[in-house]
Amino acid sequence: MKLTLVVACALIDADNRVLVAQRPEGKALAGLWEFPGGKIEPGERPEQSLIRELNEELGITVKEACLAPLTFASHAYESFHLLMPLWICRRWEGPVTRKEHQDLRWVRPGKLRELAMPPADAPLIPPLIELLGP
Ligand SMILES: Nc1nc2c([nH]c(=O)n2[C@@H]2O[C@H](COP(=O)(O)OP(=O)(O)OP(=O)(O)O)[C@@H](O)[C@H]2O)c(=O)[nH]1
């Protein structure tokens, strides 16, 4: 089984809402709502990858000191096993801009279950509710 390491981030706004982004058409799991992030490239540290992905996908600049580890997903997809650490971030520079996704939404953690998310993401929701409220 191929192990794939993906880094992801829950950006949190002043109202304790979380940013989710809709995967583009043409990609695996298209249309599902995910946490911004992506695969680690060779030679990158996980935090560097995440900072790069957040810049590419959302146009924001994040400092490593503003990333805090929250939890992780470990999920067996058919063709690979996903291991995905989730960081949270409350501080960034620049406006959040849609660059690669179909759509972006700020949602209360308690509403995440109402969105179609990748199956790996379900266990990430309770820790967010515990931290931020429903
Ligand atoms: N960023 C992100 N990826 C997730 C989440 N949940 C989840 O299962 N994934 C999976 O983790 C992988 C993320 O990699 P990616 O977005 O960089 O990859 P991709 O499918 O665009 O493939 P590619 O970059 O090779 O074209 C995908 O297989 C995606 O389905 C999530 O919440 N956020």
- Give the overall shape: globular
How would you sum up the major sheet?
4 strands, mixed
Total separate domains: 1
- How much helical structure, as a percent, in the residues? 10-25%
Detail the poorly predicted runs: none
Portion of residues in beta strands equals 25-35%
CATH class reads: Alpha Beta
Question: What gap, in angstroms, lies between the N and C termini?
Answer: 36 Å
Helices and strands, in order, run as EEEEHEEEH
Please identify the structural class as seen in this structure: alpha+beta
CATH architecture: Alpha-Beta Complex
- Continuous helix count: 2
Structure commentary:
There is one protein chain. With 134 residues, this protein is an alpha+beta fold. It has one domain (3-132): Nucleoside Triphosphate Pyrophosphohydrolase. The protein is built from 2 helices and 7 strands. Strands 4-1-6-5 form a 4-stranded mixed beta sheet, with helices on one face. The chain is globular, with a radius of gyration of 14 Å. The structure holds 8-OXO-guanosine-5'-triphosphate. 8-OXO-guanosine-5'-triphosphate binds next to strand 1 and strand 4.
